DNA sequence: AATGAATGAGAGTTCATTCAT
DNA sequence: AATGAATGAACTCTCATTCAT
């Protein structure tokens, strides 16, 4: 019943900055749970403990709200990723491992963020779709950078070009995303463990490719 | 432009079987382009060249329509996959390669089918969500089966258990899905080529894991 | 599977007359259960074992179908009523009793008919509404006639005029209709018994009015 | 015709309480005129001078709207009835007379309310049907109570049991309802007058039954 | 005599968005 | 800073009705 104090928890006369974050917090949850279209501004406002007009005052539109979510969560992910990768230290494979590890940890801990970033289907407006694409590209670039650096140093070879790194990054991120689902079915698995398994599965292959040991399907004609 | 004649080709008085397939054809396209919620039955009906009530007469509801799409495309994918894998012949790695190859070919050729199957966000009703989950599980099981068979034979070892196979299957499908996006940015790449690259990246790693050559991040403490 | 014979029960190649009655039979049931608007021609056609176009071919429209039901059931009721009243024989009160008795028996046995005749709310089109009103008026006229005849003879008095008879008829039919509901809550009660009770409640009052013994609320002013 | 000013009387920015009543007012009219199914929320909204979403915001659904109407009108009727019956004072027949009088007055004055309460056909959903049944039962209970009290006191006899009272109540309410129609054809008749006539018709009969003067159809066998 | 295929029109319902306070 | 009141537009779904065979 107190109106001005801090007793109420979160209500009345909160400065804009703070309110905005509250709204985005809730919105990420709801967008993740329902998807962009099925999410309703009504629900978000109610869960945020404010009225709808506030949402529009601060975030302009449903689209604006979603974009704000997207940006914030993308930033968070990139930050987590970079921090870990840099802290990973010397050897390139260690850096890649640290990066992937951070990635899994982030996704495991902030499922909603990841869902908002990556699992929004093609149902979005032009503006949003391109923002999502941007966010994805940013993540890819991080991973690709890691791969590139790492491998370029690791083997003497420089046969790995931009395209290759991008290819590997896509494969890694896709695998990681999918393993996110696998993790929900295996609650015992730590992000650390999953990272390790994935590293084992791909790292050698990446290196081996560079060394020229290319596998080719033997003794069989084109399946077409 | 003729209205009552036979000139129009696809119009009036089409038997149910055929119409149903027409509707599903269109629906897959639209669901893929817009996502479940953003897709409107109106648009589907119009593109199918019929009126809305026909859609409801034959498919019962938007949900029923989506489920029909889901089932048909899942069947198609599994069929394509199985056919190729069996045709792949003797060596396990060849079979896996053939399966993956079929997978990429399918996804590349029937993008819409794949999007409907795999890219529907969490915005779905209970019934649909579980149908989607079923479809995904079916695909996973195919891949996991291939991996399992293959590797079990390949190395003498039987250290690969159910969980491992499932892990690998998730990683592979995720990577493949993501590489699907990569392919749209690199139109020159054939599904064949992508398959080969992925195989190279992964196959050796899978084998190596079995042989006990496990990579572990050296000389570094827990990043936490 | 026999097509032309009588084996199938009711199907294929039934002459128009018969089909029409089948349809009306079903329609009365459905209209009674659902009400005019909530009843769907689809359901009626299906229950009648034929296709919708037949319904339209024979009865023209939903409205036409309902009118046909209305007419047939009204005729049936009037017939049952008249027959009984005439068979009731000499004394006027016996004739009234016999008429009411027939009425209750009919309503108890053909609930659907009565519901269609009397319980269709005001939700009907002009045409139908007036047909329903006609049917109701016909029933009222029967009862009013009975009352009139009866009482006119019974007492020497002729103080009962048209209006009075109509008043009594309305009261009687209304009471009877309502007692129909009461009967569903008391399954043990026979139509005969209900008739007797109602007669007892009303007959004397009717006579007494004629004899001038008019009751007037004593010693109290108008509540207005 | 002014749009934004205060001239319009009933428009923009009305507090919820008031709007709700306005909506229910209109809804009662429309439901009475058209019946539940034929009534359209569109029409109700338009007549209420608001947009459809307001109706749904305040009353949840068409069903909810109808239930609200039902409850309010039932309350009104019961209130009118009780008030009058209590004010009727001492003698039981006076109380019954007063009650019936109030009933007729209410029905004559609030035809729509009564139609909504009593004339909705069987076309309703489970929830509504039972609400209607409840409302009807409440009215019946009122009348039955009056009858019971009254007669129990009036004659020394206690031969009237629950069932009898209920029987009489049904007959009375049914008669009254039907006389409602009769009244529309005889505009000169006041509710007072109708009540008096009905009382004369039934009161004596009720008493006589108690005194044992039971009428039985003489000298005739079962009409069957 | 009979029907599968097809639709125009309209119902209830919801949502993102704004206005007035 | 904040909100109760209000709506245009769109969506899913149903129904009486007809056409072509």
Structure description:
The structure is a homotetramer of 224-residue chains. Chain A is mainly alpha-helical and 224 residues long. Chain A has a domain of 142 residues: Orthogonal Bundle (Tetracycline Repressor, domain 2). Helix content of chain A is 71%, strand content 0%. Chain A has 9 helices and no strands. In chain A, α1 packs across α6, α4 packs antiparallel against α5 and α8 runs antiparallel to α9. The longest helix of chain A has 29 residues. The first copy, chain A, starts with 15 loop residues before the first helix and ends in a 14-residue tail after the last helix. The N terminus and C terminus of chain A are likely disordered. At the C-D interface, α1, α5, α8 and α9 of C face α1, α5, α8 and α9 of D. Chain A binds a DNA duplex (21 and 21 nucleotides) through α3.
């Amino acid at each position: 019943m107190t109106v001005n104090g801090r007793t109420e928890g979160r209500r009345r006369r909160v400065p804009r900055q703070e309110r905005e974050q509250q709204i985005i917090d809730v919105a990420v949850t709801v967008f993740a749970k329902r998807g962009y279209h099925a999410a309703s501004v009504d629900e978000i406002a109610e869960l945020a403990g404010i009225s709808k007009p506030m949402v529009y005052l601060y975030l302009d539109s449903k689209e604006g709200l979603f974009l704000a979510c997207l940006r914030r969560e993308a930033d968070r992910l990139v930050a987590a990723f970079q921090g870990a990768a840099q802290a990973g230290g010397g050897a390139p494979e260690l850096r890649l491992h640290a990066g992937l590890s951070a990635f899994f940890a982030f996704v495991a801990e902030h499922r909603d963020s990841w869902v908002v970033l990556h699992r929004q289907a093609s149902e979005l407006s032009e503006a949003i779709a391109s923002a999502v694409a941007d966010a994805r590209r940013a993540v890819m670039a991080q991973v690709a950078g890691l791969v590139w650096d790492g491998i370029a140093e690791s083997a003497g070879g420089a046969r790995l070009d931009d395209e290759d790194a991008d290819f590997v990054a896509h494969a890694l991120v896709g695998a990681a995303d999918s393993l996110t689902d696998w993790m929900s079915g295996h609650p015992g698995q730590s992000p650390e463990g999953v990272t390790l398994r994935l590293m084992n599965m791909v790292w050698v292959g990446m290196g081996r490719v560079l060394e020229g040991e290319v596998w080719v399907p033997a003794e069989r004609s084109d399946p077409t």
